[in-house]
Amino acid sequence: MLSSEIFSKLLLSKGFDFYTGVPCSLLSGLIRIIDDDPQTPYFPAVREDAAVGLCTGAYLAGKLPVLLMQNSGLGYCLNAFTSLNLIYKIPVLVIMS
């Protein structure tokens, strides 16, 4: 089993440096570790589509974004992914519980 601490270090080693998402109890360990590390800013979002927008802005500003969310939030962000990220080929790593 991969711990949240090891996983967060792997993400950092791959250059991911911007994190956002809707808080989720299943991802709370990873969110806590990321939020406590000054190298990995975490910005909580109120909805998944808003988090997609934050990731897009971060990518355009030179960051490598990660979106953390529950699987139930996928429907909320499909329009943002298809009308923004897909069209302009803006990558976002999605970690879904």
What does this structure look like?
The protein has four helices and four strands. With about 100 residues, it is of the alpha/beta class. The protein has one domain: 3-Layer(aba) Sandwich (Rossmann fold), CATH 3.40.50.
Helical region count? 4
Under CATH, the topology can be stated as Rossmann fold
Strand content: 15-25%
Name the structural class: alpha/beta
* Mean pLDDT across all amino acids: 95
The largest sheet, given as strand count, sense and whether it forms a barrel, is:
4 strands, parallel
Query: What's the β-strand tally?
Result: 4
How big is the Rg?
13 Å
At CATH level 2, the architecture is 3-Layer(aba) Sandwich
CATH class category = Alpha Beta
Trace the largest sheet across and list its strands: 2-1-3-4
Question: Spans of 5+ residues with little confidence (pLDDT < 50)?
Answer: none
The dominant shape is globular
Sequence of secondary-structure elements: HEHEHEHE
Q: What helical percentage do the residues reach? A: 40-55%
Q: Give the N-terminus to C-terminus distance in angstroms.
A: 15 Å
CATH superfamily: Thiamin diphosphate (ThDP)-binding fold, Pyr/PP domains
